[in-house]
Specification:
The complex is a heterodimer of chains A (885) and B (113). In chain A, the strands form 3 sheets. In chain A, strands 1, 2, 3, 4, 5, 6, 7, 8, 9 and 10 form a 10-stranded mixed beta sheet that branches. In chain A, strands 13, 14, 15, 16, 17, 18 and 19 form a 7-stranded mixed beta sheet that branches. Chain A has a 4-stranded antiparallel beta sheet with strand order 12-20-11-21. With 885 residues, chain A is of the alpha+beta class. Chain A folds into 5 domains: 71 residues, no CATH class; 195 residues, no CATH class; 208 residues, no CATH class; 170 residues, no CATH class; 177 residues, no CATH class. Helices cover 52% and strands 13% of the residues of chain A. Chain A has 28 helices and 21 strands. In chain A, a hairpin with a 4-residue loop joins strand 2 and strand 3. Chain B is of the alpha+beta class and 113 residues long. Chain B has one domain: Arc Repressor Mutant, subunit A. In chain B, the strands form 2 sheets. A 3-stranded antiparallel beta sheet of chain B has the order 2-5-4. The chains are: A alpha+beta (885), B alpha+beta (113). Chains A and B meet through helix 1, helix 2 and helix 4 of A and helix 2, helix 3 and strand 5 of B.
Amino acid sequence: MKFLAYLRSLATKFFHRSQTANDMEDELRSHIQLRADDLERSGLPRAEAERRARIEFGGYVKWKEESHEALGGHFMETFVQDLRFSFRVLRKSPGFSIAAILTLAVAIGANAVVFGVLNALILRPLNVPQSESLYAIERGTDQAINHSYPDYLDLRDRNRSFDSLAAYNLAPAGLDTGKDLSSVWVQEVTGNYFDVLMTQPYLGHFFHGSDEHGPNSAPYIVLPWAFWHSHFQDDRGVVGRVVQLNKHPFTILGVGPPEFRGNLAFLSPDFWVPLVNQEQVEGWSSLNERGNRGILMVLGHLKPGVTPVQAVADLNSIGGWLEKSYPKDDGQMTFSLTRPGLAGDWFGRPLRAFLAGMMLLAGLILLAACANLGSLFAARAADRSREVALRLALGSSRNRILRQVFTEAVMISIVGGAAGLAGSIVLLRGLSVWQPLETAPIRVPVNPDAKVYLVALLLALASGFLFGAVPVRQILRTNPYEVVKAGSIVRVGRRMTVRDLLLVVQIAICAVLVTSSMVAVRGLVRSLHSNFGFEPRNVMLVSTDMSMAGYSGDKVPAMQRRVIDALAAIPGVKAVGSIDRPQLHYGANSEIVFADKTTDLRPANAAAEPMTYKISPEYFAAAGTPLLAGRALTLHDDKNSPRVAIINREFAVKLFGSVNGAVDRYYKRTDRARTQVVGIVDNGKYASLTEDPQPAMFLPILQAPTSATTLIVRSNRDPQQLTAAIKSTVRNLDAGLPVDMCTWSQELNDAALFASRMATVSLGVMGALGAMLAITGIFGMAAYSVSKRLRELGIRIALGAQRNEVLQAALGRAFKLLAFGSAVGLLLGLLATKVLAFIVYEATPRDPLVLAGVVLAMALLGLVATWIPAQRALSVNPLILLREE
Amino acid sequence: MTDQAQLLPGTLDLLILRAVSLGPLHGYGVLLRIGQISGNALLIEQGALYPGLFRLVRQGLLKASWGTSENNRRAKFYELTAPGRKRLREETESWNRLATAIGSALAAQPEEV
């Protein structure tokens, strides 16, 4: 009841404010009139009576204020008043306001961007119905996400936990729409894929499990809305059209809904085809090979009421059965569940760690900004102590003044937050349409949503209260009589004040950011010059797939040979070799091998799992990989001669003990074939730059044929001329063979160095933001202390102080704080960069150049920030100063 | 004037309720009535009355309406509501208990202990 009455009076107050106010004014005035009447009756003249009545009434404004408060509904009114007042105050010092708003805009913008990415990739569920029960299946202790097709069929048909299980794989393919030839990324999916993900077509219809009748039985295509929009210009007549995919006719069945981009958060395929047609799409088929785990992911919805734990138990019992039934192919078949959006934990975990780290850094930036603004506010509060004292003396309560200060702070933080959010929306929109790699369909839709807006608002409010709280103690302690009497007193304390502490914290945070970004940059530079095991300079990569032009069987190696010979004949080309996928390209293959004497070839008995490459004899010459021992491959190492391989140093040491001891020895591959080692090459980098030395083997393409072909063309010619020459050469051989070209350095930049480049750029941006905040923080403090001590400095100069003594007096403290903060930050930064080492190759903090760089950077920051205050301190004219006071 | 006593915190409301319980009054009238019934022994700053009056109105203990004063000025008149009457009774009792207790405590002689 009371609350209702309060609400009603609040509403009345809010909407009829002026009426209530007038009413009260009337009443108080009538009181004074009545009193004056009485006094007049006792003999005073009317004017004197009214004067006395007003005096007796006491502080008119004060009682009016308190009466307002007593009536309730005061809050909104005061709030509006405070708002108006704050606006006026801030407008009076535009420099301060703009600096504060910009600082906050940058800090909150950085947070909003990082949170936006985090939100889109990790927090936001996949845009499919009931995504909360959608899981992907991981295998073994290393949580591999890939499976073999026969295993998938067993998992699908034998489990009792999932509604159904779908599977898919990603592959490049050549698409011929009749008008142009292009290389596209297709997602080969099982027939039930769309049904499992419960999605409905936007146009036409989807294929289903019932359309699958064995290999190559379902030549259908479903287009994602985006691809239909960009490549078919929203043509509704596209349904039923036949296009050529790798020279095989495929019928377009339908178009997916606009919001559906498959089940990966960071990748959108160009279209979907049934997995049963794998042979037509990829040129070979692994559908019957239980040991070939070429299926990228198996996923499905849990049945209602089934928990993930129960499902894992169910899957593991199938796994046990698989191990027993297929000991040769199925090793450790234990399973776990993961979310499908980030392609399992091998990609998801580092990404999550990275984003969490970035979020932490962004939080630190915001904290530094708050410390910065807090000390600015404290300085202002000190300057405004006269105003505060006057207001206190006039009867304002301390609460009221604090409220006004907070209103000011929150107003700044909201405006700054809005500006930051606006900037971050632009940035996130840009990121969403950005395609970082030319060679892969990676697209990261990080469009901001309500959650991002909310977080930005909350951060703005929180930081407003945080830095608004800094001057509270100062205001509470203000003694109006002292201040009004003596003027604002500045005590140049020797002890550490809150403001000093805030500055140290801020400088330390900045030093952390500067340190980690320098470590990252150094790591990146070093990884550009590290030993990859090949020489990427002056090499053009020409990647294609023979199956895209319809080659299969024996025609593949013959065509590969013709292409290699033709390219080698281009003037200026020094060497040409071929490999199925270049080293350090994503999606490296590996397979298990056995010692020669092993007879029971089950996975548990494997001797190693080397990276596996299929190369032409000229590969090492073209790639610039030195042969340590033995011989290179030759064209005679074909399918009619004994199986041979070239292995790397790591493989040799692991299986045979030494490099020289390995030549001419034998080992076994899973198909029981004895393979003779004919040569040894040095170790290289295969899957990632940060990996430990991995074993690797290189097989001759003539003995291990593959249609995937990347030609390594070494030449000193200008890349552009070379590209044109290669294009025309290939077109002369087969106009239907699509090729993608880029320099090897470019390819490395795109694929292998992508993560560390992103990390370096983000850290660099964060470091720059931190440095900016540190400069404004130090500048604010130095400028303030100089302006407060101008008189003292004037006296010092008048008494004959030297320039360096004046500087020492004016800025010594700022520099001490800077040195202390930098030391703390440097230490913390060195600790933090241990985390960085996981992402950035050779990111080591124990690097004299980094240490020197950080020290130099912080000193420079200090110099820049204190330059203007120092000039001001030096140009003090004691005469003018002393006369003024 | 100098022998007037400062009001104890919280007692102004009780005095207002008591003053108004003797008949509807405008604000200035309340002040005069308190002076009259307390023998002018209490020091009340005139303006301090109004926050108290408005607080009591908001709590529903008083109700107010505009009227005309004895010397023909427009003034707001206050009268007690039923909850106000009840509150006055309760507050009076508790005040009396407090006063008695403190009075007897202060009057205690050494031999009584």
